[in-house]
Amino acid sequence: MTYYEVHKLSREGFSIRKISDLLGLNWxxxxxxxxxxxxxxxxxxxxxxxxxxxxxxxxxxxxxNRLEQFRDTSAAQMHDWLKEHYPGFPRVSARTVFNFVHxxxxxxxxxxxxxxxxxxxxxxxxxxxxxxxxxxxxxxxNSQGTRIKVYFFVLVLSRSRYKYLxxxxxxxxxxxxxxxxxxxxxxxxxxxxxxxxxxxxVFMVDENKGDLLLTExxxxxxxxxxxxxxxxxxxxxxxxxxxxxxxxxxxxxxxYNRAFLDMELLNSEALAWLHRTANELPHSFTQKRPxxxxxxxxxxxxxxxxxHIPAPKAEPYTVRKDNSFSFKGNLYSLPYDTYQGRGxxxxxxxxxxxxxxxxxQQQELCRHAICTGVGQKIINNDHRRDKxxxxxxxxxxxxxxxREPEKAKALVTAIRQDKPRYVRDQLLLLLQIVRSTEPExxxxxxxxxxxxxxxxxxxxxxIVQHLQRSSEQEQIMSxxxxxxxxxLPDQALIQPLTSSIKDYDMF
Length: 507
Prior knowledge:
Low-confidence stretches: 205-213
CATH superfamily of the largest domain: Ribonuclease H-like superfamily/Ribonuclease H
Number of helices: 17
Number of domains: 4
């Protein structure tokens, strides 16, 4: 059939590249098919190709025996066994081994055990009994061509197929998922008897060998709202195939080739799409309009009175020695001196696209925008400043450490005028310099700063370093050493000849 379709498109004027794009074929395959004019020649070509010798055919018996003993053996494990038992096993790709193992299974009727699942036709769900919920993610391009990942929440009524869709820039948490539920109940006009979910970490703490442990927030919410919960296996079409089809429908119909501008606009476009297409056009199986069926089903839903959703509790996070904390693979800075020894913790609360950090007294320390990548360091330069000391105290401390306090005061005044926003940082650097430098050098640097328009701690540091180097060179020259390599010249190492006093005896 592919052969006939290729030739049909070629007769209609499509190029080889266009045919390969339409049919999902390699352009070389399309070119080969077009080069064979007679379908009987193409059939003979396929028969010849089917009889082609296989590179791994000498290992057929080994693979067959292993599959007869262990039906569930994967191709990757078979590949390792072949290399273990045959030192001369050729270097082939994992895909080649996979295809060969699959071929041996077909030739000798050795399908994997326990791979078939028994299915049966499921009756149509009564009105108001069930809705199915799922989450998805998709990458959109913004106006600059950058990829933006968006996350979405989907709810579909099982009987009417009436759908709701909500987007977020951040992965859903228990709190944001609860907010999405409230929006969905308001949209569909009530609450169904049972909601069907994946065993998702948004709602579950642990599967606990079948006794599912829900997050505290979602357990309280579901109990308050009064709907039943049913958790099924992931990608289970018999249990929640309706919502999985809707997720695929959203990606292929609504999100495909859509540009991202902002989240508010995307959600308004999603609502318009629901009214225009998803809930308006007849369903492919029922052949009924979901909105018409929903008009019937909403009378069977429980009333959804507005409820107060408590704000999420701040979660404790450990503070690292470098005054930072780790959140979802990234490091975020904390204010100077937050770390107070082993066991120091801060409380973290996520709000929209921001992180709010509190100390042990529930006082807000700082905020950070959530980084979407992994392995990043998000640093607020203001956190590096020691704010325990006042600026006036730092200024007095710097002046008192010098032998020329008036000149030091003049330098600070110049810095205040030139860099008023960074006075604290400048004073901290000046204190660092004066504590690690000889007083004579500091005095000379202050004199130079007063004679020239110096108004920065970095410039003052450069002057100090220059004076230190000059002083070292003078000391080297005074010792007769080479100022370039600090070595004594060769002449200085020569020992003069001496004569005995007896040579000068007077007669």
